[in-house]
Design brief:
The protein is an all-alpha fold. It is about 70% helix and about 0% strand.
Length: about 450
């Protein structure tokens, strides 16, 4: 059967096939929060950042959080004037040349798919740690299990999916906050001077920590993919983007600070800990929370997988409407009003890398690191394009002022600095291969875009 493509003009925005206005502000917020997967950062990412930045881990989060908040303000400014199912790439397309819009589309699709695959790796890791029977279960089978359940939920009902993600994250984050609060109270009102004075910390270490900290935040913008399904999207989506970045930023900062000083008091190395709350929960005299938080992180990875598939599917749906990919990906389910074909396709794309790595003996933690690092390139590309597109967006609406250029300029510089931080100093293998893999993927996507665009150019001529 030949591939069928459609031009953007043939599919009006109103004909997306998705349910209109069914998601409450809290459910929209849960999409961004679940894509961030805040539970996984204290459990997995903070120890990795401590390996790089030591007592400067908290500062790495401050810098990364400030950069992401700048980006959140840029995205929110655009989202107040445009609600699209195509998310950030549609914003870039509206204000930049078509090739830049296509680059944003392919970059964002990879970012969500790679993040989903990353947390599938984390799911495999925690399944082997928590459940006695799973060490004998092949990793690829666990990857199939979590991906299939996530696809089934995203296929069936977006509202059920967002509510489920909300409760999963709320429960696990609440337990972590209780442990952190008890440890802060036990530490007393004084500051940890080894962290405040950045003892034994260099600028290069903090910069490397910032790169990892950025991955904790990526996904905060995914509420923008719900532009057709959110109630009052021009209001609820900007709020969700900014709120998720702010709330998670404070949460990560507190977690990094408390975990660092608590592990020093225990005379343990945070950087080598695979399950930090196994040590922290007993220290807070709540030992039962140790396994509960691990379970929360385990389930949070499933929620993040679900959120990434939902977001990626809506990006793919919009790409089909814009004629970038075959039109079949733009169809929606007659009963469920979900992009069922795009959901299935992105679910398979999330599954394959994690299952393949696992089949070749790569650990779940390494899958988490490899795919998560690859995802960062996609997110940073899109964030940068949105930042440079914002002035044009504001100019078309007669809202461009000298002051309004300040935030996108800072955001664009911050994104370039973050990209540079992933390239130098050159990371160890296989992380040093990731920029080239990403570049080949992006160039292939742009070549495909040019091929599909050529007939429309000839007909227009």
């Amino acid at each position: 059967m030949p591939l069928e493509f459609v031009s953007p003009e043939e599919v009006p925005v109103a004909a997306s096939g998705l349910r209109r206005g069914i998601l409450s502000p809290l459910e929209v917020l849960s999409q961004s929060v679940s894509a961030i997967a805040p539970t996984t950062s204290p459990a997995l990412t903070v120890p990795l950042i401590f390996q790089q930045a030591g007592n400067g881990a908290w500062l790495s989060y401050v810098i990364a959080g400030a950069a992401m908040l700048l980006m959140a303000f840029c995205i929110a400014r655009v989202a107040r004037g445009s609600a699209s199912l195509g998310s950030l790439y549609q914003f870039a397309t509206d204000s930049l040349p078509p090739t830049a819009g296509a680059a944003a589309a392919w970059a964002l699709l990879l970012a969500y798919v790679a993040t989903g695959s990353s947390v599938v790796g984390g799911f495999i890791n925690y399944a082997h740690v928590l459940l006695p029977v799973t060490p004998s279960v092949p990793g690829p089978l666990l990857a199939v299990l979590v991906s299939a359940i996530a696809v089934a939920l995203a296929y069936r009902d977006v509202q059920v999916s967002t509510r489920l993600m909300l409760w999963i994250e709320a429960g696990s984050v609440s337990m972590i906050l209780v442990v952190l609060a008890v440890l802060l109270f036990r530490n007393g009102p004084h500051a940890d001077m080894e962290q405040m004075t950045l003892r034994h910390v260099t600028g290069s270490q903090v910069r490397l920590g910032v790169v990892l900290a950025v991955f904790s935040f990526v996904g905060f913008e995914s509420a923008t993919t719900l532009g057709h399904e959110a109630r009052n999207p021009l209001r609820t989506i900007p709020r969700a983007v900014v709120q998720s970045a702010m709330l998670c930023g404070v949460f990560f900062l507190v977690a990094a600070y408390v975990e660092t000083f608590a592990f020093r008091q225990l005379h343990l190395d945070l950087g080598t800990s695979e399950a930090p709350f196994h040590a922290l929960a007993p220290m807070a005299h709540i030992p039962i929370f140790a396994n509960l938080i691990d379970v929360g992180a385990f389930v949070s990875m499933f929620a993040c997988t679900l959120a990434c598939i939902m977001a990626a599917a809506r990006v793919l749906l919009k790409m089909a409407h814009d004629g970038i990919v075959p039109a079949r990906f733009g169809r929606t389910h007659a009963k469920n009003d979900t992009p069922h074909i795009a959901v299935a396709a992105t679910g398979v794309a999330v599954l394959l890398p994690a299952a393949a790595f696992s089949a070749f003996g790569v650990s779940g933690m390494d899958i988490y690191g490899y795919m998560g690092s690859l995802a960062v390139y996609g997110f940073l590309t899109v964030y940068f394009l949105v930042a440079i597109a914002l002035p044009s967006f504001l100019k078309r609406r007669g809202q461009l002022t000298a002051a309004s250029l300040f935030t996108p300029a800072l955001a664009a510089i911050a994104m370039l600095a973050a990209i540079a931080g992933t390239l130098y100093p050159v990371p160890q293998r296989p992380y040093n291969w990731l920029p080239y893999i990403y570049l080949v993927y992006l160039l292939a996507g742009l070549a495909w875009f040019s091929i599909q665009r050529a007939p429309r150019r000839r007909s227009a001529a």
